[in-house]
């Protein structure tokens, strides 16, 4: 009961702080001349909401591993909104949506820190790769071929960062798709490997033990 009350209070605390900070920022924009916090900082509210999910995951431990996916996804949305709002990159939504696929993959990897499943780790790696590849393909199509952003160099930088992330993924993919260690596989092989010779030897030893016991009983 104490642990449940503690987690409930913590959720209330972080959610309450989110509302307090949001309301305070709106009041600052209205009452203080020259202050425009929400004009550029409103995506931080989305980021804080995602962070709340991640904090809940850390507090709940293995039982809250599923919170990793919405936590990473909402945090990624907030970061994208912050970049697009700050550098006027709203046209990049034509290919930036693909990063949400990668965000789900990252969420699976974070979840796997608790669950320790090889299949979950590989699924996360596949989603990360698909998202980055789609981001680069559609980014080249819209930015290089169609030139939708025109003279906005920030969009080219945004696409270049996607290429960098794709390159890092290719380098680190060997670890994401690596098989389990031999120490984990050997016990399974030993349990499943039961040869006919071993069965014959066991049955022979049992018959010899029975013969020896019978001879001891019949002895005067």
3D architecture notes:
With 220 residues, the chain is mainly alpha-helical. It has one domain. It is built from 10 helices and no strands. It has helices at residues 2-31, 37-41, 43-60, 68-87, 93-96, 99-115, 118-145, 153-176, 182-192, 196-218. Helix 4 (68-87) runs antiparallel to helix 6 (99-115). The chain is flat, with a radius of gyration of 29 Å. The chain starts with a helix and ends with a helix. Residues 5-9 and 183-193 have low confidence and may be disordered.
Q: Using DSSP, what is the number of strands? A: 0
Overall geometry: flat
> Treating each run of at least 4 consecutive H or I residues as one helix, how many helices?
10
**Content-based structural category:** mainly alpha
Segments where pLDDT lies below 50 for 5+ residues? 5-9, 183-193
Task: Summarize the entry for a quick read.
With 220 residues, the chain is an all-alpha fold. 82% of the residues lie in helices and 0% in strands.
Relevant terms:
flat; 82% helix; 0% strand
Give the topology.
Blueprint: H1 2-31, H2 37-41, H3 43-60, H4 68-87, H5 93-96, H6 99-115, H7 118-145, H8 153-176, H9 182-192, H10 196-218
Helix pairs in contact: 1-3, 3-4, 4-6, 6-7, 7-8
């Amino acid at each position: 009961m104490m642990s449940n009350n503690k987690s409930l209070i913590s959720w209330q605390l972080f959610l309450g702080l989110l509302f307090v900070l949001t309301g305070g920022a709106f009041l600052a924009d209205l009452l203080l001349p020259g202050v425009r916090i929400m004009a550029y900082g409103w995506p931080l509210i989305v980021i804080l909401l995602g962070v709340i999910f991640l904090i809940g995951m850390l507090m709940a431990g293995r039982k809250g591993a599923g919170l990793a996916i919405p936590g990473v996804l909402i945090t990624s949305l907030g970061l994208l909104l912050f970049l697009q709002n700050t550098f006027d990159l709203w046209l990049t939504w034509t290919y930036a949506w693909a990063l949400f696929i990668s965000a789900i993959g990252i969420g699976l990897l974070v979840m796997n820190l608790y669950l320790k499943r090889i299949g979950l780790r590989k699924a996360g790696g596949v989603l990360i790769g698909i998202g980055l590849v789609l981001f680069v393909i559609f980014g080249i199509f819209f930015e290089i071929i169609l030139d939708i952003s025109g003279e906005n160099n920030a969009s080219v930088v945004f696409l270049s960062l996607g290429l960098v992330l794709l390159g890092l993924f290719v380098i680190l993919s060997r670890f994401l798709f690596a098989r389990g260690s031999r120490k984990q596989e050997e016990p399974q092989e030993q349990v499943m490997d039961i040869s006919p010779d071993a069965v014959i030897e066991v049955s022979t030893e049992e018959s010899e033990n029975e013969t020896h016991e019978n001879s001891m009983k019949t002895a005067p």
